[in-house]
Design goal:
Length: 315
């Protein structure tokens, strides 16, 4: 067992419908699956891995489905996370109805957030909605510039994610650096256009960027009372970095060094709930079988994709 700390967001399959079948955007999140998972280990609120709902939201589902899914998550007290942005919305104006029905709050997490207007962002942040920004994915897939600055301006919670680890690195040091650099660049550009020069100092401190991948990440998951900072009474989730390696020298400001210089190679030890799962650069769990399974899965998926492409090209 890896001993990972995680919130498992349960989602549903999204295949292209066969003739006579409804589109996935018309299918509510399966209540029976949520109930089944809550009866198992994921139902223990004190467990290392707990449950959330990865719903479609109004951008990717009909309004009726969105309303049902929001209500289901609130009924079970689960964080509901959904993607917003990328292509045309299935339910234009859907967010207005959801807001009118009082379904927004700290238990709602929006991934990306592009296409929400500034008024919506202000109101959503005011109601405690959190945002997970995936800077590299958003720029690569054409979502638009990350909305980090907009969420910050409205006092919202910025957390960071990857979204597509099959093609983008899951290294959160890199994610934090990319989000920080992109927002500083946008701020510098705005200042140059409005004031004729860039700001005298950076507009965002590295300490804030570090919070995006620690305490603010915990807040987005509703776990800030348990993890995210070294605070008496919280569980000891700790990452120890080897600052003696060449890439981190010299260490004049520890926070800035972590955010601007650290990489996965610097992770010496990892403790979850007070128990070490990586020590002196080595994982304590046997991951050989898992790596083998991942390799086999990747080869199977790639073979199926090649086969499908060949079929389509022959038609």
């Amino acid at each position: 067992m890896s001993g990972v700390r995680a919130l498992f967001f349960h989602g549903s399959p999204k295949p292209d419908p066969k003739p006579g079948q409804p589109h996935f955007s018309e299918i509510p999140h399966p209540r029976s699956e949520v109930e089944r998972l809550l009866k198992g280990e994921l139902g223990d609120p004190d467990a290392r891995v707990t449950l959330g709902m990865a719903i479609l939201g109004p951008h990717y589902s009909t309004l009726d489905v969105s309303l049902q899914d929001f209500a289901l998550a609130k009924e079970f007290g689960l964080v509901a996370s959904m993607h917003q942005g990328g292509g045309k919305a299935v339910s234009p104006g859907g967010w207005d109805v959801i807001e009118e029905q009082g379904l927004l709050g700290p238990d709602i997490n929006i991934v990306h957030g592009q296409s929400l207007d500034d008024g919506q962002l202000a109101r959503f942040c005011g109601q405690g909605v959190t945002f997970s920004i995936a800077p590299e994915n958003e720029m690569t897939q054409g979502h638009g510039f990350p909305i980090t600055g907009h969420v910050r301006r409205h006092g919202g919670v910025v957390s960071l994610g990857v979204d597509l680890e099959s093609v983008i690195s899951g290294d959160m040091f890199t994610v934090a650096r990319m989000a920080l650099g992109m927002q500083r660049s946008l701020d510098n550009d705005a200042s140059r256009r409005e004031q004729g020069s860039i700001p005298d100092t950076s507009t965002i401190r590295t300490r804030e960027a570090l919070a995006w991948i620690t305490l603010d990440g915990a807040r987005a998951l509703g776990l800030e009372a348990r993890i995210g900072s070294l605070t008496p009474g919280k569980q000891a989730d700790i990452v120890l970095l080897d600052s003696g390696l060449l890439n981190m020298q010299p260490v004049s400001d520890p926070v800035s060094t972590v955010v601007m210089q650290a990489s996965l190679a610097n992770v010496d030890s990892v403790m979850v709930a007070g128990e070490f799962h990586k020590r002196h650069g080595r994982l304590l769990a046997d991951v050989a079988d898992g790596i083998s399974q991942l390799d086999a899965s990747g080869r199977r998926i790639y073979a199926e994709l090649q086969s499908r492409q060949q079929e389509e090209s022959s038609q």
